[in-house]
Amino acid sequence: MQLKRVLLLVAIISLVASIGIPAASAAAPYEAYTYDYYGDSSPLPAPFVPDAAITGESLGVGDFKEPSDMFVAKDNTTYILDSGNARIIVLDPDMHVNRIIETFTNNGKEDGFAAPQGLFVSDRNELYVADTDHGRVVVLSEKGELIRIIDNPKSDILPAGFKFVPLKVTVDAADRVFVIARGIFEGIMQFDDKNNFMGYVGTINVSPTVWDRLWKSLSTKAQKAQMQLFIPTEFSNVDIDPKGFVYATAIDITSNTPIRRLNPSGDDVLKRLGYWDVKGDIRFRMFGNNSGPSKFSDIKVLGGGMYVALDSNRARLFTYNDEGDLLYAFGGRGNQLGVFNTPVAVEKIGDKLAVLDSGKKNIVIFRPTKFGTLVRQATTEHYNGNDDVAVKIWSDVLRLNTNYEIAYLGIGKSLLMQKNNEKAMEYFKLGMSRKNFSVAYKRYRRELLKEQFGTFMTVVLTLIIAFTAYRVARLVIRRRAVKHEAGLS
Amino acid sequence: MKQDFLKFPLHLIVRPFDGFWDMKYEGKGKLKVALLILLALILTTILQKQFAGFLVNRVDPRSLNSLDDLEFTILPFLLFCIANWSITTLMEGEGKFKEIVMATGYALLPIVLINLPMTFISRFMTQEETAFYYLLNSISSIWFVVLLFVGIMTVHQYTPVKTVLTMVLTVIAIGFVVFIATLAFSLGSQIYWFIFDVYREIIFRT
After folding, report:
1. What gap in Å lies between CA A306 and CA A325, rounded to an integer?
2. Shortest distance, CA B201 to any CA of chain A (angstroms)
3. CA distances from B51 to A425, B44, B63, B110 (A)
4. Which of A67, A276, A409, B20 is the one with CA 20 to 30 A from A418?
5. Please, are residues B137 and B7 in contact by the beta-carbon 8 Å criterion?
6. Which chain B positions have a beta carbon within 8 Å of A443's beta carbon?
7. How confident is the model at residue A486 (pLDDT cuts 50, 70, 90)?
8. Between B122 and A155, residue with greater pLDDT
9. Higher pLDDT, A211 or A21
10. DSSP strand E in A225-371: where?
């Protein structure tokens, strides 16, 4: 009886204790994955876990209403574009409200925003707001004073009666302003620092398939008039990296290149050397729930050649490195903390990620896990050319996930740099990179040949001499035998 | 021995017209040899999938299955022979079934002879050199098709045009056979499950 009681007590205590202490592993309400060489999704440890959610209520400024964009400046000041309330909420690095910009003085009169959709903060902390319903881009100083307004672009290439409806905006170091506007299919609009329209960059070409052309050639005029036009798709969002390359996303479900990296002359220079296209999910259902390819609504350059793209279709975040390898994907739709309803913007705050959810009216802060941190560090070190350091970190990554092909690839590349060709071959094989394997193997073979050439030639020559000697000897013996039979000797 | 297994097949693949004639009329062909070549083909396929160099081997190791290789070599082989025999019987072909099997079997020899060493050599190739691998493999396939063509032509004593026609018809016949077989299999399994269900009902009721 006594024993029973003791056991019961122990059981109760342990039960209570287990409730009191949270599980050691931070639970993420999603599964992180990447696509392996064979196109199967291979599960990963979560690279990021949700930390906290920030709502308008928790900030004490009243609920957000259709928040549409967010920007985190270099000094970790967060700017939230609360579109429905036509205001910009500025948070200090500790995530407390610093100030709220609702109005600014325009020609001595008080002016405000109307359903602004895009926000960008330049390195000099100047705010660029795509004031959508007013059809203008407003540039404000750090203190909220008006610097300039970009509106009514004039150019020969714009049609008469053109209505300027800016959606997203980004600015490069030379104060060139890149604007994505509604109904503009020619590309991203580019303005100089004097508010003049300079032209378009990054035009998306449409190429009708052979089938489309055949179909069109067979149809009548009336049918043609009813047909869907082959219009290029619009860009959905832009970001700019420190080198001045514009990263742009397009919602084009037929395209394999929805993410572009535009150089100053507007050409797409994104590296796509990974196993698969840089287009988010490569395997998805064609019909039904959660079907169709990824549709990117935002992109953020993370540094170290990495960028993260926000898929609004399945509410996932895809992180790529500079070569176009998918590092990891995570996120999803749902009600828990860490999954989204209508994610509209992704930003980075230090090494954390922040996602603005228009549907839930909150911002979710993601904190990197050990795995996420290691992957980021290794990628950055490799990108900066510190391969020795990268190898060490990649091997730590492999300790956390042995199936991470990109880590093998990273180690292989570093080993190749260090001229350790034989070992590099092994790692490239594990990383399933035939191109790199071939390079390593070529070097290894040449090395081996150089070393073994002497031995090899000796063996070959010896064999040739031996063979010749054998033939000669046989000939001589035969001849002798013939002569002997003929009785000549 | 050496004559049957080595000399004659090698002679046949380089001098097909002569070789197939000898096979049919001089009794030099052996069914045993043809089947052995088929077996060797299966073996080389398995070896190639398993051991070809990393640069040319695109087979997912998780999908390697030697029994599958066995099936997917023997079944098409038999299918071709049966379909060809069915067609040529109706089209005044002079070949017996055994001769068709032998001709097809002997024609496979170049594939065996080229694939096996290429599997080995491919392990010592760089990416640029893999072009040779693919080239030689293509040559072996083309060689096989040419031999098959000559073989069928000689065995049935056809003109080239008629041979092409029978080949096309053979392919169609293969389609038919596969269709009928699938149908029969499907019906058969339904009948089987019906009987099984009835049996189960009876078992549960008593």
Report:
1. 10
2. 39
3. 16, 10, 14, 19
4. A276
5. no
6. none
7. confident
8. B122
9. A211
10. 235-240, 246-250, 259-262, 296-303, 306-311, 316-320, 326-331, 343-349, 352-357, 362-368
A431: tokens are 């990383």
E strand or H helix that includes residue A223: helix A221-226
- What does pTM read for this prediction? 0.81
Distance from CA of B123 to the nearest CA of A (A): 10
| Cα torsion A288, A293, A299, A301: sign | positive
What pLDDT does residue A228 have? 65
Contact call for A445 and B55, based on CB within 8 A: no
Using a CB-CB cut-off of 8 Å, the residues of chain B touching A438 are 55, 126-128
- Mean pLDDT (whole number) for A393-416: 91
Task: With cut-offs at 50, 70 and 90, classify the pLDDT of residue A381.
Answer: very high
Do A442 and B60 lie within an 8 Å CB cutoff?
A: no
How far apart are the CA of B60 and the nearest CA of chain A, in angstroms? 8
In chain A, the percentage of residues whose pLDDT exceeds 90 is 47
Q: What's A258's DSSP letter?
A: -
Q: Which of A429, A437, A441 is most worth mutating to test chain B (most B CB atoms within 10 A of its CB)?
A: A441
φ, ψ for residue A138, nearest 5 deg: -100, 130
Structure-token match 């046989």, residue found: A474
Mean pLDDT (whole number) for B3-28: 89
Give the pLDDT score at A26: 55
Please name the residue of chain B whose CA is at the shortest distance from the CA of residue A39. Answer: B60
As a whole number, mean pLDDT of residues A340-348 equals 93
Nearest-by-Cβ selection for B127 from A38, A435, A445 = A435
Cβ–Cβ contact B55 with A under 8 A? yes
CB contact under 8 A, A38 and B55: no
Residue appearing with tokens 């035969």: A478
Amino acid identity of residue A302, one-letter, is: L
B5 contacts: CB under 8 Å, gap ≥ 6 = B33, B36
* pLDDT interval class at A33 (50, 70, 90): very high
SS3 state of residue A139: strand
Q: Which of B126, B132, B133 to mutate to test the interface with A (most CBs of A within 10 A)?
A: B126
Closest-approach residue (CA) in chain A for B55: A434
Q: Give the span between the Cα atoms of A332 and A311, in whole angstroms.
A: 9
